[in-house]
Amino acid sequence: MHVPEKLTVLKNKKTSLIIAAALCLSMAIGLYSFAAGRGEQAVAEEIKEVTVKKGDLKIDLAADGKAELDTVGLSFQINGVIKEIPVQPGDHVKAGDIIARLDAEKYQLELEAARAGYEAARARLAKARDDYNNKLIAAKEKMDNAMLVYQPMSQVPDIFPAQEVALKKLAADSTREAYEAAKKATSDIKMEEAAVAQALVNLKKAEKNLEDTVLRSPVDGTVLYIAGKVGESVSGGGDNADKQFAVVSTGDSVTVTAQVLELDIAEVAPGQAAEVEFEALPGEIFTGRVGGIEALPVTDASGIVAYEVSVLLDKPDARIKHGMTGTVSFIIEQKKDVLIIPNAAVKRVDGATVVEMYNEAGEIVTRKVKTGFTDGRNVEVIEGLKQGDKIIIRTRTSAQGGKA
């Protein structure tokens, strides 16, 4: 069979390419095996370009925190059945607005009975005083009459028989003693006065109980919580009192509390700047200041000791709800709005601090820089670069995927 010359040449070239490729592959395998045999790894270098920008640097101490709004807890002081709840959570209220009302029939009847008891006690007291005054007047009249008889006789004793004068004197002395005793006979009045005082206490208590059937907000704010429903019973007063039937937030301030471990508490002080990011509001930072540090520690079940620290936010936000959780960053040191670059871009060459960048010809060159504060990831650039400059970071990666 005849094979064209051109086809033969092509077949020879194809065969040569295959042989060459096989030889290259064999050499590569051999080199890799040789390197592997010596325990060496193939290394690749990745070059990434980053832009010099302005930003904030900070060293902080992080802790979990919880928002606590400035709130007022409201509770009924008496027992009763809820008759009306004219508000619900989320409603805005003014000071004096009704939060809830109990069925007041029982307390209205008690008030009427207490008022009647008070009036009856006052009437008894008035009668006791009248009786006292009448007895005193009668006793004084007898004394005066006895004295009118005795005094003239005592002035001329020789005219009257001595026995008669003695009898008149005895009668005058007796009526005087009876008058003095009548003046001191105030026990009935005092008893009735005490009864009136007790009746007044009962009346005031009944008035207070009736007033307490209505639960009012003492402040302007927002209703956060309502515990009961219409028709339910509530207990007030004593150890078994229902606590916080309602909670109203004034919205005047937001405090975030965090527990800081005892090893870190020395880094926190009153007045220190802090930042809070809530889980429900990601990406938004709320600034504040440390308000106080509890002197007594908190110890959890595992024995870890921490101290509760309160942070007062600079600008309360209506979106922040009571009990929201987030992260509190206690600022130890920071710099704002400075030129920053990654720490990985900075090198030391012959005692100088330098970064690498491309020149106009596309070649990698070094430039001296002066650096300042660092947060461990980025560093402040004081001299040598300006905003918008491009620098490069070299990353060497082994064949096994690790950084060399």
Automatic annotation (TrEMBL):
Gene3D superfamilies: 2.40.30.170, 2.40.420.20, 2.40.50.100
Domain Multidrug resistance protein MdtA-like C-terminal permuted SH3: start-end pairs: 337-393
Signal peptide: 1-35
Cellular compartments per GO CC: cell envelope; membrane
Pfam families: Beta-barrel_YknX, BSH_CzcB, RND-MFP_C
Keyword hit for Signal: yes
Keyword list, A-Z: Coiled coil, Signal
Coiled coil: 104-142, 189-216
The family this protein is said to belong to: Belongs to the membrane fusion protein (MFP) (TC 8.A.1) family.
Family annotation (InterPro entries): Beta-barrel_YknX (IPR058636), BSH_CzcB-like (IPR058647), MdtA-like_C (IPR058627), RND_pump_MFP (IPR006143), UPF0194_transport (IPR050465)
Protein name (database record): Efflux RND transporter periplasmic adaptor subunit
Organism of origin: Desulfofundulus salinus
Alphabetical list of NCBIfam families matching this protein: RND_mfp
UniProt-recorded Gene Ontology molecular function terms: transmembrane transporter activity
Organism taxonomic ancestry: Bacteria, Bacillati, Bacillota, Clostridia, Eubacteriales
